[in-house]
Amino acid sequence: MPLLRTPPVIFPFFGHRSVTRLRIAGRALRNRPPRWDHDSRLAKMRALASHFASREYAGLPIQLEIRAPSGESSLHAGFTDDEGYLDFDLPLENWAMPRQTEWETICFTWNDGEGAQSAEGYVLAPGEDSDLAVISDIDDTIIETGITGGFRSVLRNWQRILAQMPAERVQVPGSDRFYGALSGGLLPAAAGKHLPATRHPFFYVSSSPWNLFAYLTTFIQSRGLPLGPLELRDWGLNRETFGSASHGRHKVLAMQRLLDFYPDLRFALIGDDTQGDLVAFAQIVLARPDRIAAIFIRQAGEAHSPEEEQAKADIGRAGVPLWLGSEYDMGRQFLDRIGLAHDHEAERIVETVSETGSGSGSGQTE
Which of 125, 151, 184 is the last residue of a domain? Predict the structure, then answer.
């Protein structure tokens, strides 16, 4: 079939919902589903390049079917935008939340010119028994990029970026055990559910492009890390995409949206010191200190800048527990001491922070 006549396919992203709102997005592309089983370096590079050279389908009519906890279904119509994106942000009429966190299913339908097509998507619903959620960065927080040392590091580690499949990428050591402890444990899948959920819902915020959604979720799932909705970016060849300030701005806005979406949850924030996470997290803490249960920063970069030192001071004055360390195994010890590794009583973090002391890798409140 000629390239320009390749039929469109909807690739859903992970969504999430509350009692009153449901949000899910996706993209219509003239691309085949991704494959991660290539052997040769050239095939791997072609596979990754194909995700950035996406062929979008604009103006495609879409229908979204959602099903209430009562079993009643409803249809919602929309169109893809100029870059093929679709985004549904729907009001709900007091939908009950599940007792425990779980993934619910939705369905996109469209006509690709050859007939009716459908694609199943997943929506995370935090459980009633969860009083804590987690927002995590991705690059150099759970997946090593090798580019924290400047341009020379990029040259040394180009294969990680351009020629490695998810199974070949280097996971940050100890992140699976640390995240497993913070997640509250894996819950048994409910009947008919296809994705595993953790007691504490996880969300990932990254400056990576939406083109890498399938790549990143494959990495997360294959390494035993908690699955969760991703907040990524639409990259363009402009200052808004590549300017250093844009990384922090994107993360702050994404975190603010999640805090607004779930006003009854407190959040733990996890990041690293290579892309301004400390400064971004401090902005959230200064605006809403009562909503942040703890902050965890993996130290992977160089000495902290004056702006980062100020951010640490701001977090400390707000009374939010702050862990700084290079090894997640030490972070696990911090979780144990503040009582967060084995239960979901987030209030105990603040009550016991004075007992954690200070120092790199063990917990710090400045």
Answer: 125
